[in-house]
Amino acid sequence: MTPSTTIPALSGLEPATRPVFPFTALVGQPVLQRALLLAAIDPAIGGVLISGPRGTAKSTAARGLAALLPRAPFVTLPLAASLERLVGTLDIEDVLRDGRLRLAPGLLARAHGGVLYVDEVNLLPDALVDALLDAAASGVNTVERDGISQQHAARFVLVGTMNPEEGELRPQLLDRFGLSAALANPGDPAQRQAILRARLDFDEDPLGLCARHRPAMERLTDALVVARAALSGLAWPDAVLHRAASRAQAAAVDGMRADLVMLRAARALAAFEGRGEVGVDDVEAVAELALAHRRPPGSGPASAPGTANADRSSAPAPEREHERQRPSDVGRHSAADSISVREGDWGALPPRPEATTRVLHAGGWPAKKA
What we know:
There is one protein chain. This protein has helices at residues 30-41, 58-68, 83-87, 92-98, 107-110, 126-138, 171-174, 189-204, 206-230, 238-250, 257-272, 280-291, 335-341, and strands at 4-7, 16-19, 48-51, 74-76, 88-91, 102-105, 115-118, 140-145, 148-153, 157-162, 179-182. The chain is of the alpha/beta class and 370 residues long. Among the domains are: 17-185, 3-Layer(aba) Sandwich (Rossmann fold), CATH 3.40.50.300; 233-295, Helicase, Ruva Protein, domain 3 (Orthogonal Bundle), CATH 1.10.8.80. Strands 4-7-10-3-11 form a five-stranded parallel sheet, with helices on both faces. Strands 1-2 form a two-stranded antiparallel ribbon. Helix 10 (238-250) crosses helix 11 (257-272).
């Protein structure tokens, strides 16, 4: 069956069926695909944050992932959604009238067992992001009103996307996302050509492209089901725990969330690839997905302990241009210098010297006695 999204028809109009671009037809996004698959195998990882410019297949990949999961809903959180629409509400009037508590479920309940997609997550209010991340990590949503609360299962794969040009997430919220993938515009003409060919083939004959990728999609779906079932049977040897702790410490991340996410992702990878035990290589394969968005600003990727490349996060940061200036150069900024000093601060002007005048006597006040 070709995965598709059916749009209800208005009166007198024919319903529209929109095929979903196959996950296996994505070109040039192996890191993104790995992160999404790992989060689908173990939703307790806490979801995936995808950052990148417009047109880099962020939403296409999220919809393709939902098509891989058996009977999985794909729920989109609107940017203007309220907290009640997200988590649901309780009808207190029913409790007072007949003693029965009724829950009006929200989007978290609808997304149970599927994918919850949040576009421009960096523009959402912090309260919504907190509720999203709490449910994604715990698999449980709590609805509270007037001192009464009710819980329901909310186990879903959270996929958040953002364009860094539109603003960043606070570090506290970044840390709550399990994995991250940073996308970039394709720089290889051959890769751009392959992306164009796949997109044009889908636009011209979506059912034909889906049919050609159906065997690969079915194999991937079966592999996800098997991997999910195998998770509980895999243990983490001491060497694996040591490697995860060492990588997190070398990256100078706060807290223990990075270590735990790394271990869960490594276990998901081992299950997906059919191994009976989590290995150190599994930790290395997923380390950057768990650490990239948690490192302090200005620190680069850390190498594994004991390798030839030293940890770049411990190296001194390069001097900035305005720190190397001589005192006589202060105030001689070009337009390019001002951008490098205050990069990202739109509309900022470079500092400039102003002459000072000695005040001999303040009007209305007597002169100061020696």
